[in-house]
């Protein structure tokens, strides 16, 4: 009896947290003035300019396909012991970023006698360069998997965002980062590339206003019943088919999530859902954003929900052909809109 009461009590708490974390829920309190002032006023952005990006959608789709094909088919499995494949991936990412006009930097570190590298570029802000937005994605895979969705799709999205924003004047600084060693056996350890990177930012005293983590952004389906959830009651709160992109954060990062979601919706009509909740909910902290939470930064994950939707998760079937490049392009267009609104006054 006591066990049943305890379970019911915990379920009630989780439900309340979920409802609190849903942006569109009427029970959610309005954002306070501190949250509203943290990033630039989104109403000052030229929406017509943002909406102009979809005219480039075919180019975005083609570039996404190219990167996914190179990483998942030509290079293939990019596990932590497959240093040749990881180095080829670094070379490809670096070459693409240089072709957009960036100076490419790396952050090497050692794990068990092998050097691994985060790759990054920085687009310096014009009026508030000390304020930084991080946009990142990991480029490694579970050993033995092609990793088209996990995580070539996100690397492709990261590169496209860097390309599309290369010549765009921004008031605040944006760093585009490709992280190494996100996957097991290093996941949740201090040897994750994102943990090393976030720690270096903290040690340097950098003013990181937020982090956007791209984690599997390419698998969509219109099949009813194709979307699953970590907790049973969520099926009453979210769609039952996997035709949307999901934004996930902890409760502390809810203000950042809401602003990214608002900017995203101004750039694309792709359905977007969101959740700000406790890390104990399975999947909520399953990527590089977790590392930034560990150092006290606000961060969110952009995801197609991984194993809650994609049946090829961490499997040999995670190949380029299963991805929806049209909707991937919509994700990129929406995120470009969001990044502009966070960094332009």
What is the strand and helix layout of this fold?
Elements: H1 2-21, H2 33-38, H3 47-51, H4 57-75, H5 83-99, E1 105-111, E2 114-123, E3 128-138, H6 148-165, E4 172-179, H7 193-203, E5 207-215, E6 245-250, H8 254-267, E7 272-277, H9 289-294, E8 299-303, H10 325-343
Parallel strand pairs: 3-4, 3-5, 5-8, 6-7
Antiparallel strand pairs: 1-2, 2-4, 6-8
Helix pairs in contact: 4-6, 4-10, 6-10, 8-10
Structural class: alpha/beta
Q: Taking all residues together, what is the mean pLDDT?
A: 88
CATH topology name, in short, is Aminopeptidase
Q: What strand line-up does the widest sheet have?
A: 1-2-4-3-5-8-6-7
Describe the structure.
By secondary structure, the protein is of the alpha/beta class. The chain has a single domain (32-343), classed as Zn peptidases (Aminopeptidase, 3-Layer(aba) Sandwich). Helix content is 39%, strand content 18%. It contains ten helices and eight strands. It has helices spanning 2-21, 33-38, 47-51, 57-75, 83-99, 148-165, 193-203, 254-267, 289-294, 325-343; strands at residues 105-111, 114-123, 128-138, 172-179, 207-215, 245-250, 272-277, 299-303. Strands 1-2-4-3-5-8-6-7 form an eight-stranded mixed sheet, with helices on both faces. A hairpin with a 2-residue loop joins strand 1 and strand 2. The model is unreliable at 1-20 and 25-50 (pLDDT under 50).
Give descriptors for this structure:
345 residues; 8-stranded mixed beta sheet; alpha/beta; Aminopeptidase
